[in-house]
Amino acid sequence: MKENSGLRSPGTGANRLRLTDDELLAGLAEGADGALAQLYQRYFPMALHLIVSNNGSEDDAKDIFQEAMVVLYEKVTEGSLELHCQVKTYLYSVCRRLWLKQLARKGRYTLYDTERDPGEGEPTVAIETDLSDHAQRDIQFEVMESSLTKLGEPCRTLLEDFYIRHLSMQEITDKFGYTNPDNAKTQKYKCLQRLKRLFFSVYKED
Amino acid sequence: MEEDQDIEKALERYRRRVDLRKKLDQIHASMDMDAIQNNLQWQQQKRPTLIRQLWQAHKQTLAIAASVALVTTFATLFTVWQYRSTHQQQAQYSMLRRDVQAIKQSQNQILSSLSARRRAAFNSTPARVAGTSFLVAPNGYLVTNNHIVQGADSIYVQDHKGDVYKARMVYTNRGYDLAILQIQSDSSYKPLPTLPYSFEPRPSDLGERVFTLGYPRDEIVYDEGYLSSRTGFRNDSSAYQVAISVNPGNSGGPLLDEKGNVIGVISGKQVSTEGASFAIKTDYLFRAIGDIPGDSLKGASLKLNRKNTLAKLPRKQQIKKVQECVYLVKVFKH
User: Fold this and answer.
1) Is A95 buried (19+), middle (13-18) or exposed (0-12) by CB count in 10 A?
2) Which residues contact A128 (CB under 8 A, 6 or more apart)?
3) First and final CA of chain B: distance in angstroms?
4) Contact criterion met (CB < 8 Å) for A144 and B23
5) In sequence order, which residues have a C-beta less than 8 Å from that of residue B49 and are 6 or more positions away?
6) How far is CA B301 from the centre of its chain?
7) What is the average pLDDT score of chain A?
8) Which residue, B150, B141, B151, is CA-closest to B180?
9) Would you say the ipTM is above 0.90?
10) What pTM, to 2 d.p., does this model score?
11) Best CA proximity match to B215, nearest among B139, B137, B131, B108
């Protein structure tokens, strides 16, 4: 991480500055929306070019690139990103592999490279690992999604409000009309236990 | 409980991803997709088709191959063109003058075989060009080709015995390629009473047996053949085509028929064709002599011999008589 990232204060007025990749990644790790937007704006055209050049649509490009951004973001926030190449190359390689997977379903196994493919070097191995990690998290995400759906109301909204929207117990008590926060807390606990059962009945972590 | 933590962690991850997706959608929506697409289309125009891809991959090889082909083609064309320009005319028609400089070596050998007295005449400055000439009148008028004597500073003639006389140029006709020389009166030349041969004014027939005497070397050389065409090189009506083997140095020699009438003056040959030599018709010799201005003759009249004393003689006797009238011409240019 660069020392001067603090001096340039990437989170605030630096949006208009052209930040380096390292600075952007640092910003991403801190959850700065500006960094995310800059990365997106900087590298989406590259992904679009790749996908459109290989029988894809703009929507395909959006899906693939956002998927790649999710991979990057989750690696960065986890702190487990080991970058052996430029961010651009990393994103390109991820998009390339993700799109190849889609193409393989249609019986195509090659694509036309719009950028130089980094090839079979060390970064490729890292990317494969990153992608298999990502596939794992994808499954978890989908199981969570379906579990939440199966959970039904009001449990789902309650849990979402608490865990996802970070409402306080008092707010939840008011919203759901519980008599007191303790009551709400008990409800939340029951809901979480149900979700846990639903979730782990399908999802088994290795 | 451990599972509680796990499920909370899973929920947390879920939340983060949902958040992220929302943000990404927002960013995506905020972007000017039309501008990006336009920019991309501009790039796409550069996006190669299969042929273009092959071109991209192999253009260096192709460029090298193409340039090699180009160079080869032009080199070949140039070589052919140059060969043609240098050889065409020479290859077609070669004047049979002998460039002595080019065969200096052989001349030196010949000179060494000459007697000391004769050698003295040539040793100092070797002749530049040599050819043949023959008498048209007994009082020392000779005919030869213009291409032998043109540009000459001094002309010497040498008879078959090796005696050398100085000659002057009386008249030249570049069009007919004929030149009239006269042995200078102050030299020790003794005029012959008559010439053994006459000049045939009528055109000769195809198949006429002909012979010639000339100096392709420093020694007189006899050769014979037949008249093969009434016209010369490229249908030149002023010449005959003769199937006779002649060489540089034969130029200016007499072409005689069986009876010993002069029917032409050897002038050149077609190198690309075997046995195609050319001789200027006597008719043009008459015309050239007729064109000589009276002043040039300096009083000594030029009368062509009409009486032939060779007709009934065998060839060997004919040659003996004719060779006395055939001279080697040596031309000096300084």
Assistant:
1) buried
2) A97
3) 126
4) no
5) none
6) 38
7) 77
8) B141
9) no
10) 0.44
11) B131
Residues of chain B contacting residue A163, judged by C-beta atoms under 8 Å apart: 8, 11-12, 15
C-beta of residue A94 within 8 angstroms of C-beta of residue A71: yes
Tokens describing residue B198: 């006459």
- Give the pair of three-digit tokens for residue A1: 């991480």
Radius of gyration from C-alpha coordinates of chain B: 42
Q: CA A79 from chain center: how many Å?
A: 14
Comparing CB atoms, the residue among B8, B14, B36 nearest residue A141 is B14
Q: List Cα–Cα distances, A172 to A176, A189, B185, in angstroms.
A: 6, 13, 149
Catalytic residue of the set B147, B204, B238, B283: B147
Q: Give tens-digit pLDDT for A10-66.
A: 444 444 456 777 788 888 888 778 888 888 888 888 888 888 888 888 888 888 898
Give the separation between CA B217 and CA B248, rounded to whole angstroms.
9
pLDDT tens across B275-285, in order? Answer: 788 999 998 88
Instruction: Choose the closest CB to B27 out of A36, A112, A148.
Output: A36
Is the bond preceding B293 in cis, omega lying within 30 degrees of 0?
A: no
Helix (H, G, I), strand (E, B) or coil at A55: coil
Contact B124, B295 (CB under 8 A): no
Q: How far is C-alpha B222 from the geometric centre of its chain's CA atoms?
A: 26
Mean pLDDT of the region B44-53: 65
Q: Is B147 a catalytic residue?
A: yes
Token pair in block for residue B325: 């009238």
What is the pairing mode between strands B261-269 and B277-281? Answer: antiparallel
